[in-house]
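Annotators were shown the component list below and the corresponding predicted structure, then asked to write short factual statements about the assembly.
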Amino acid sequence: MAQTAPHAAHGGSQPAQGRGLFGLLLVAIPVLLVGWLIIYPILAAIVSTLWIETPQGTSFSTGSYRFFFSDGYSLANLSLTLWTTAVCAVLLLVFGLPIALYLRFSTSRFAAYVQGLAIFPMFVPSIILSYALIRTIGPNGTVDLLLNAVGLPKLPSPYLTPWGPVIGLVWDNLPLTVLMLTAGLGGISTSAVEAARDVGAGPIRVFVHIILPRMGNSILVTVSFAVLGIFSAFTLPYVLGPASPEMMGPFMLRTFNDLYDPLNAKTQAVVSFGICLVFGLFYVWSIARNQERRSR
Amino acid sequence: MARLTIEHLRKSFGVTAAVDDFSLTVEDGELVCLLGPSGSGKSTILRMIGGFEQPTSGTLAIDGQDVTRLPPERRPTGMMFQSHALWSHMNVFNNIAFGLKLRRLPRAEIRRKVEEALELVGLAGYGPRQTFQLSGGQQQRVALARSLVLAPKILLLDEPFASLDQHLRERLREEVREIQQRLGITTLFVTHGQDEALAMADRIVVLRNGQCEQVDAPDVVYRQPQTEFVAGFIGSMNFLRANVEGGTFRHGDLSIALDVADGPAVLAIRPEDLGLAQAEGETGAIVLRSTDFGSHIMVELESEGATRVKAMTSPATRFEKGARARLSPTTYGVYRDNRLIASGRLTALPVTGRAHHAVETA
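Structure shown to annotators:
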């Protein structure tokens, strides 16, 4: 027995090594694809905005960035995009959290229908959603017709104003927000809530003192996801948004297609990527912190 | 300290009645145990008392005040949950202090009360610790302190020791019983463990399918079960099924004279009330197995009609596998349609052939 133990240990490491290699092989293809289709274009875009090709050769220049951050129109577009993203993130939490709380804690059969309704916009293409919103809140849309029918004056339409994309993006991102918040709430046991009520906490205090502190991380992750999606949104801002200023998505397309200015389009993309990267890193940090807590 | 009155309580989930016409009065300072199998409605009753479920009908009153429709936060009850239900984002001190903070007590008083509660449950000095740094037993003690610190009129314990190992469970139940008696707090305790109920309760309520089968002191529930279900649920019980004919219950070579109407009946005998005597020839039950528990031997036998029975015998007497033994009960109960119809004590008489007994019926 004394001789077989080291032999077995030695023999046992070979299958382990094999499994390790097999594991690496399994992740190799996605890693290569990420490198080829995501990392390389990013690096290429950054490099091509800093090392400019001129008739005299390639030279390092930060001119396109200096132009972006000194150009009033570019900054207005960036401001509008940041404003839209922030407003949408707040509104998504304001609308998504009550729905998620209802879905998590309701025992009613009605909850299943609410969940279906909340998730439904996820399956509606953005272009159809835009068309539906134009027909509803646009000039002479359903809202105007209904107001007119009861003898009320028309309301100012959010269509082609900064609020147009806000409404569309909130609608479009609500399902994912609700799903992620509901998943976060799933980690809070019913008995934890009941224990709080048992010691005298009403519904609002339960939310503030018990639920909110324990789903802070999932709220941060939800906001990160929403921000990443909304910041780089194209269809809804393009169809519902104002012509000027415009969000970064339509701005990039117009700079590239209409102005035939790939350098500035790439600069705008790199700036957008830099801002999204902050949220991305924040998301990764949140996940890592969460896993660290769980492992304790 | 308070008196709890439950009258005609009923709770339905759709067409299923989880609790059906349940009434009970728990006296001041009494510890009453709700005991029953899964799905018997014991937790539902406790949750209705705590305000976490609304009764379909019936009333709940604490010290004469109707609390049936009050939300949990407005009831003078404190509940200890099976899963501890500690708030992991708060340390031990804040878990216990949370209810006091909601009542806006001065900071010094909160500190004093929390420290007293921690000392009461044997966790003095544990306030700054995080809940995940505690063992299961310590977490349950914190949950108890959290309930007790608010001095509730009624303490509700919902299978609080279910997730603990046997040794810890026994220790904690003794501690909880001692604390309950020291504080004199009216307590309702839900469990499906009969040993817990027998060890802790002043009275046991045995539930089945949402209805009360029996309410009595633990020794009465054990020794005088009023229904066949209670007889089988509490402790170990042998059931012999046969007909009473001409005033005699006959099962194999065992016959007992009974003062009941003829018809089917179930004879119930505890293993400790079933004596064994060596049988000769092909009569008597066959010994299947003998297990030595040190203080006693549990003999498993097969009687007529493949009925298995257990008898607790002295370690001095040995019954080998395959041997024949005559059953000689000393105390019995007779049930028909789940109701106790007769009970009594027997004095075994040395007889040949069929065993006959001198009977003292109750």
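Statements collected:
1. The first strand of chain B starts at residue 4 and ends at 13.
2. The helical segments of chain B are 42-50, 92-102, 107-120, 136-148, 166-183, 194-200, 218-223, 228-233.
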